[in-house]
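Hi there, hope your week has been kind to you so far. Do you reckon you could talk me through the fold, stretch by stretch? I've dropped the whole record in just underneath, so have a look:
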Amino acid sequence: MRTQVVQVYPLLKPHPVIIHEAAAILKAGGFVAFPTETVYGLGINAASANTLARAYAIKGRDAEKPFTAHVASPAVLEDYPVVVDERARALIDRFWPGPLTIILPIDRERFEQKPCFAEPLAGICAKLGAIGFRCPDHEVARTLIGACSVPIVAPSANLSGTRDPVSAEDVVRDLDGKISMVIDAGPTRYRAGSTVVRLRQDTADIVREGAVTVSEIHEFLISQGATMGAADPGEKQERDKRRTVLFVCSGNSCRSPMAAGILRSMLGGRAAVDVVSAGVSAAEGMSASPQARAVMQGRGIDISGHISRRLSREMVKDASLIVVMTEEHRKTVLRQFSAAKGKTYLLADFDETGETRYRDVADPVGQPEDAYRRCVEEMWNPLSNLAIKLFKGEI
């Protein structure tokens, strides 16, 4: 698939035919990059679990990071299960449409009745207890969002870890062939991301400074009687305490997703550990192989929701521990990512019996199901030892 680039004039209303075509792509589960006043956003249909999963894979984004909902007008917030108090309304009246993202607390009762997003985003928002919103100050963005009958989220239209896309050329550089359309309205006005404010019950926190300065936000909120604060210390400590184990293989279709599924099952949510996987040469957006799913199902482990991801700089940076399947994988990871040094190990390194130490985990791709079973058996003991070390806090 080659990405279609459609040019529009930034000072005129976009042609209805272009908007209709772009909205149809979004509603059908495709991806459209569009301009805002800050950076180009990647439009995603947040009502589709499959579309959300593919978006995380395409961007190489941490699966625990939320996307921001984009709305065509402030009135649309009434359709979302969030708390919009006087502070929020004051910020909206002052800065929307504009380069300000406002993170609003979830109304738990309404959210449980109608979460507004599909999984996995609904689960992430439920865990965070909040949803971020933005109403962009760009005619193309608001017209397109308003033409869609589904909730739209829009992270920056680039690969995670690369520079912000402030032109259509930047989008094509990262995402050509991975998305359906780019609406080109020229360079963005601010060439910087939005400022992000999180509203809590008692304070308003500046999460990120962008096109709106921190001092401007501070002065305005204080004038409204709001209390400014830093991020909640308890929340920060919990976030800092969590570790991320990243399994890496080649195609991210069998060995690494099976290893991740096994470790999650062993940990059972009883340790502050996030377990993810990726492949050094993965085709993004693919399911785990049928044989891998079947073998895991036989052990009572469900990996049917796995979506393959290509290893990215952001994944490596965010990982506390990187576990690879072969010595060649380790060499590749260390050669391509400087941040991997000191935290990349062979899975066999965790077999304390020494029987499989320095041995590669054989790739079962293209072989009968029995090869997948042998692969799981080979991984089981080192994964058990790894789980114990994680429980004890030794890693």
